[in-house]
Amino acid sequence: MRMYTMKNLKLVLKENREQTVVNVAGIDIGTGLTVIAGPCSVESEEQTIETAMAVKAAGADMLRGGAFKPRTSPYSFQGLGINGLKILKKARKETGLPVVTEVIDPRDVSWVAEFAGILQIGTRNMQNFSLLKRVGRSGRPILLKRGMYSTLEEWLNCAEYILSEGNPDIILCERGIRTFETYTRNTLDLSAVPALKELTHLPVIIDPTHSTGRLSLIAPMSLAAVAAGTHGILIEVHRRPQDALCDADQALTPDMFKGLMTKLRSLSKFMQKGQYNES
Amino acid sequence: MRMYTMKNLKLVLKENREQTVVNVAGIDIGTGLTVIAGPCSVESEEQTIETAMAVKAAGADMLRGGAFKPRTSPYSFQGLGINGLKILKKARKETGLPVVTEVIDPRDVSWVAEFAGILQIGTRNMQNFSLLKRVGRSGRPILLKRGMYSTLEEWLNCAEYILSEGNPDIILCERGIRTFETYTRNTLDLSAVPALKELTHLPVIIDPTHSTGRLSLIAPMSLAAVAAGTHGILIEVHRRPQDALCDADQALTPDMFKGLMTKLRSLSKFMQKGQYNES
Amino acid sequence: MRMYTMKNLKLVLKENREQTVVNVAGIDIGTGLTVIAGPCSVESEEQTIETAMAVKAAGADMLRGGAFKPRTSPYSFQGLGINGLKILKKARKETGLPVVTEVIDPRDVSWVAEFAGILQIGTRNMQNFSLLKRVGRSGRPILLKRGMYSTLEEWLNCAEYILSEGNPDIILCERGIRTFETYTRNTLDLSAVPALKELTHLPVIIDPTHSTGRLSLIAPMSLAAVAAGTHGILIEVHRRPQDALCDADQALTPDMFKGLMTKLRSLSKFMQKGQYNES
Amino acid sequence: MRMYTMKNLKLVLKENREQTVVNVAGIDIGTGLTVIAGPCSVESEEQTIETAMAVKAAGADMLRGGAFKPRTSPYSFQGLGINGLKILKKARKETGLPVVTEVIDPRDVSWVAEFAGILQIGTRNMQNFSLLKRVGRSGRPILLKRGMYSTLEEWLNCAEYILSEGNPDIILCERGIRTFETYTRNTLDLSAVPALKELTHLPVIIDPTHSTGRLSLIAPMSLAAVAAGTHGILIEVHRRPQDALCDADQALTPDMFKGLMTKLRSLSKFMQKGQYNES
C-alpha cells in the first residue's frame, strides 16, 4: 500500500534537468559543501551575535537560528518572534552570513521573508500544505525538512507543492526519521542522500543534530554525510550549550565546531577529487 | 530518549477531573457512542446531501465532510473550499446533523467556524502549533486527530495547546499510526482508547477508515473499538464510493453503513450494561 | 519494496479451504472463543498448579506456561527446562487442561512434544526456519506467534513452512508489533485478526499481555479482540503477580481473570448471535 | 518502556576494556578497515571460486557466502548445505581468504565450524538464544548481525550471551532496521557505528547490501560507513548478479566491487590520518 509510484511528480524529478544550485547572497547550495550553523533558537542579541561570529570564524557559510520554535509543550520557550528576527538581522550585518530561519504560520511568511535569506519549513510542518503554498510565493529559497514520518516520495511531493507555486529554490534536509530505536533521538536515514541525488535535481543536506540528538554522534555522522555526497550540513552551535533554552545537550561549542569544520572541509576536498565523484 | 514524563501536562490529565462531555447542538460526545459519518470530501451538493440523508436515516449523530483536503500531491483534488462549506450548511439544514469539517490554515479558522459544529485538525497538522493556538480561540469544539507518528504524550501536549488557549471542548481521534506494516494503510492503535481513558478526561473516538484503509476491516475494527470503550466513531460513507474523488476504495456505501450501525448500537448497548463498564 | 504479492503462499491461503479447527484433547480452536491462560513461566510446582486450578475454575480452556524462556539478558531467569515440563504435566493431570508451552531449540522438539498439547513458537523465533521445519514434523499443533517486526505476509510464509512439512494444525497469535510508541510494550495490531480471517483458513488468536504490557489495558483489549472476531485469547495469569520471575507487572491475578472471563464469555455469546457474525 | 538501562550488560561494555581485535588466519577485524565480500549464496563451485578470486584480486580480506539460507518462503532456494560448505573450503584453498558463513541451527554448529573462519548469525536469529549459546562454545569468531527490529541494547545483550559462554571474538554487523520507509529494503542505521564504538569494545562493521537493497546506494553508503568509523564492510559480490539465486538485483559485479575497493581503501587511509581519528 506504500508503493513508490512517483506518478504525481512533475517538476521535482531529476530526469534530464540540471542540478539546482540555490544561491543566497553569493553562497551556493547544490555544489560543494555548504555548512549552516548556529543556535537552535535566538535567545538574546549577545548570545546570537557571539555564536554567529564564532561559526563565521570557523568557516560556516550561513547562520541558522530560530525565532519561532515549534515546541512539543505550549509551556516551553516558543522563541522571541519579531525580536528574534531583528537580532538575526544584526547578526547578518555583523558577520555577512545569510540567515536561515523557520517560519511556521502562513500569516507570517511575507514579513519573516524580509529577515531571512532562506525560509525553513520544519519537520512537523512538512505537510502543512497551506504553509507550503504560501512559501512557494515568498520569493525566498526554502529549506524543506523531511517529516519524521515521511517517505521520500511524500517529501518530494511537498517540494512539488512549492515548485508548482513557482519557487524553484528548494533545499531538502534529512533530519532523521522516527523508528523504534530510542538510543538516538531519531534515526538518521543517510541513504536518503544518495537516493535523493538520483531522484531529484534539488540539493540535499543533512541535519546531524536533530537526527542523532547525541553530541558524540554529530561529528562522525557529519563526516559520513560528506562521504555519502551531501550538499550541506545544518548544525547546531551555541556559545554555551549548557545555558541553551532548547536542545542544550546536543549543541556543539564553538571549539568543537571549529575542530569539526577542519575535518569536514578536508574530507569534502578529498571526496571531490576524481575517483570519489559518485555522480 | 522517548520516555513518558507527562511533566508538562497541566490541564489535559484526568487526575480528579470529571469526564469532559462535548455537546454540539444537543449531541453529546464523551458519553455513550457517538457516530460521525459522511464523505471524505464534499464533491457536490447532490452527493453531500444524499449521503447526509442516508447516514442520518441509518442513525448517525453527526455529518463529516471535507471542504479543505490536505492531499499528498498538489495536483490532487484539494476540496471545494467555501463552496464546500456552503453545501455542508445546506446538508446540516436538511438533516439537522451537526457538521464536522477540517480546517488547515489559521487564516481560515474564523470563517470556517461559522459553518462548522466541530473543527477538525487532521493528522498532518497535529503539531501545527499556530493552527492549534488559533482554534483554541475559535469558540468551537475541536476534533484533534493523532499525528500518524505521534506518541500519546505528544498528542496530549497538542490538546494542552488548545486547552491552554481557553477552549475546553476537545475530542481526541485515533486514526492509525505509521508502522512497517503495509497490508493496512496505517496500524490502528486501538489500545490508545483505554490508555487515553486512563490518562485524560477528554473524549476519545476512533477513525476505522483512514487507519485500516481497507473496506473489509472497517466493520470489525469499529465493533472492536466499541468493545474497547471508544466514545465514538468517525467513518467515511459515500453514496457511490466508486465515484469518490478521494478514498474511493475505503468508503462504505449507505447500505453497508446501515448494517454496521445496527450492530454498533446493539453492541454499545450491550457493553454499557453493568459488567462491561470498564471505568 | 514491501509489497504484498502472496505469490509463494500455497497451503496457507483461505481460497476455498474450510476453516481449520485445531482440536487438542477435545478443545477446539478455530470456532467460538478459546481462552488459554497461565503464568509467564513455570516457577514451582505450587505456583503452577495453584494458578492452573484458578484459571480452570474461572473457565479457561487451556493452560499456558513456559519452561524455556527466551530472555533478553543471559543473566535473567531462563526457565526450569525439563523440570518445568514435568510440573506442567502434573498441572495437566490435576486440572485436565491441555498445555501450551514454548520450544526454542530444534533439538528439544521431540521430547518437549511429549509434555505439550500445543507447541508454541515465540515472536523471536518466528523466522527460525530450522525450528519451524522441525515442529512441522512434531505431530503437535503449533501456536505461531507473530514476529514483532513481521508483516502478515512474512508470518503467513512461516505458517507455510510448517504446513509444507505436513503439519496442518497451526494457530496464529498476534502479540503486538514494534513501533515508535513506548507507552505500551508493543502495539497490538488488532486489525490483523479480521485481515488474517480473510486471508487464511488458520485460526487467529491474540495475546493482550505481551502486546500491551500494561495491566489496565488487558481487559479492554481482550474484549476488543472478541468483538473483532478473534478465535481465542492467550493471557498471563499468576497467583501472585508481584512475585513472578518474569512479566511481574502485567499478569492478571486469578480474581481479575475471573472477572474478565465472565465478560469475555458473555460478549462472545453476544457476538455469535446472527447479526454479529462477521464471516 | 524502552529505556536504555544497560543494567544487565557485564562483559560487552567498553568501560576500561581494550578494543577487541578479532584475528582470523592473520586477518584482523577491529583495527583499520576489513572488507568481507562474496556471493549471497553458494550456488556452484564455479560461481563461488570465480567470485572469490575476483574479490581477492580486488583486495577483499575475507570471503562471504551462504550455504544455509534463511528464506522468507519455504519454496525459495535454501542453500546447498554441506555441499556449499565444501565449495567454500575449496574457495578458501584457492584464494587464501578466510570464510564467513551463516549457521542457522544449533545442531549444525560443530561441523559448520569446521568449514568456517567466522560463523555468521543472521538478523532473524539474533535472538535465537539456543543458537547464541551454542556458538558461544564453538571456538570460532562470531559475526552477529543486528536484528532488523532490535535496539542497540538488545543487540548488545545478544553479544553478552555469546561472551558469557566464553567466546570473546564477536563482530557486530549493522545491516539495516525495519522502518516505514520502503524505498530502501531496510533503513541503514549508520549512527549505530559511532554509538557502538562508544558503548562496546567489540568491532563494528556494516552491511550496505541488505540494508539498502539498492545497487546504486551501496557505494555511497560504504564510503559513508568508512567516514563514520566502521571497522569493516560486508558486501555482496556475484560474478554475474543477474543469474544469482538470491538478491540478484543488489549484488555488485566484480568490476563494480573493484572500483569501490579503490575508493574505500583510499578513504580509509585518509580517515586514519591524525585529524580524522574520532576516538
Summarize the structure.
Four copies of one chain form a homotetramer. Chain A is of the alpha/beta class and 279 residues long. In chain A, 36% of the residues lie in helices and 14% in strands.
Can you offer a commentary on this structure?
The structure is a homotetramer of 279-residue chains. Chain A is of the alpha/beta class and 279 residues long. The first copy, chain A, has one domain (22-272): Alpha-Beta Barrel (TIM Barrel), CATH 3.20.20. Helix content of chain A is 36%, strand content 14%. Chain A contains 9 helices and 10 strands. In chain A, the strands form 2 sheets. An 8-stranded parallel β-barrel of chain A has the order 3-4-5-6-7-8-9-10, surrounded by 7 helices. In chain A, strand 1 and strand 2 form a beta hairpin. In chain A, helix 1 (45-58) runs parallel beside helix 9 (254-272) and helix 8 runs parallel beside helix 9 (254-272). The first copy, chain A, is globular, with a radius of gyration of 17 Å. In chain A, 65% of the residues are buried. Chains in contact: A-B, A-C, A-D, B-C, B-D, C-D. Chains A and D meet through helix 6, helix 8 and helix 9 of A and helix 6, helix 8 and helix 9 of D.
